[in-house]
Design goal:
By secondary structure, the chain is mainly α. The protein is built from 15 helices and no strands. Helices cover 75% and strands 0% of the residues. Helix 6 runs parallel beside helix 9. The longest helix has 41 residues.
Length: 306
């Protein structure tokens, strides 16, 4: 036991040196992570020069942190260093993909493989965000390309079937990537189909009814003067009242007047003079839908006339 004090003193010196290296490393790694995060934000703002400058600073800080713990293997392989590597890899990969450049390798970025793979997976989430922002701007030009990149990354990550202790929890990252990929595929497909439909609608004649429901109601033959019943003076007063009502409803509903009821329909209603909703519904071309929507107004006008 005579040498216990000397052993303890050596341990204290070793731990003090390790603690000093750790205290020097931590702020460097935190600053590096902050610069990497800001670089990703710059990418989304399409400020690519700023993103590159922030990444250069992040890499320099990581190098300083690695030098600080160079003689302490435990610290060099610790979580904070790996987190800094992962964030730096994520930002670098995101910038490259958005710019349409080749992926940087782990050797180029000087990060370990596990951190690189997790950063690659996290970059998929950033690509989804970039794609959604583009979709909101109406730009789908790179939609299929970016979705294909995300799919390729997932297909690669899913083959890295190694223990989490080696890959740094890659399985969880891979599961996240799968969910992000499927949501993005669904969002992009829906948006592309909607854009295609809008283009088709724009090419249609301007007088096409505003909805399928209205289109179905207009499938009877085009109105002609020869189809209209001839009205006497008393019936013409009722007709004018119905025309005035139709104009008001068309303005309120932002529809063309013929969608509410054609002239020939109104004259046929006056000729038949229905006494209830069922009789009104039976009038050719008027139908149940119009009767339910406009029947009470029409019956009220008919009953008010002398």
């Amino acid at each position: 036991m005579n040498n216990l004090d000397s052993i303890a003193e050596q341990i204290r010196k070793s731990l003090a040196a390790k603690d000093g290296a750790r205290e020097q490393m931590l702020p460097l790694c935190r600053d590096s992570i902050r610069h990497s995060s800001n670089a990703i934000r710059a990418v989304h703002r399409q400020e690519f020069d700023e993103a590159e400058e922030l990444l250069r600073k992040a890499r320099s800080l990581i190098s300083d942190a690695e030098k600080a713990v160079n003689s302490n293997r435990e610290l060099a392989n610790g979580g904070i260093i790996r987190d800094a590597h992962k964030e730096y890899a994520e930002a670098s990969i995101t910038l490259a993909l958005v710019n349409g450049k080749s992926l940087p390798s782990p050797k180029t970025l000087r990060v370990d493989d596990a951190a690189y793979l997790n950063g690659l997976g996290e970059a998929v989430g950033e690509i989804r965000r970039y794609l959604l922002d583009s979709m909101r701007r109406g730009d789908l030009s790179r939609g299929e390309e970016l979705l294909g990149i995300m799919d390729d990354i997932y297909s690669t990550l899913v083959t890295m079937d190694y223990p989490d202790a080696i890959t740094g929890g890659l399985r969880r990252t891979t599961d996240m990537v799968r969910g992000v990929l499927e949501r993005t595929r669904s969002d992009l497909t829906l948006t592309m189909r909607q854009e295609e439909l809008e283009k088709r609608l724009v090419s249609l004649p301007v007088d096409i009814p505003a909805s399928i429901e209205e289109a179905m109601s207009e499938k009877d033959m085009p109105e002609t003067k020869t189809n209209e019943p001839v009205l006497d003076d008393k019936q013409m007063d009722i007709y004018e009242a119905l025309i005035e009502w139709r104009q008001k409803r068309a303005t309120e509903e932002n529809l063309t007047e013929n969608i509410i009821a054609r002239n020939s329909m109104l004259k046929e209603i006056i000729r038949i003079n229905p006494s209830n909703m069922h009789e009104l519904m039976e009038i050719k071309g008027f139908g149940e839908r119009r009767a339910n929507k406009y029947g009470r107004d029409i019956m009220r006008i008919l009953k008010k006339q002398p």
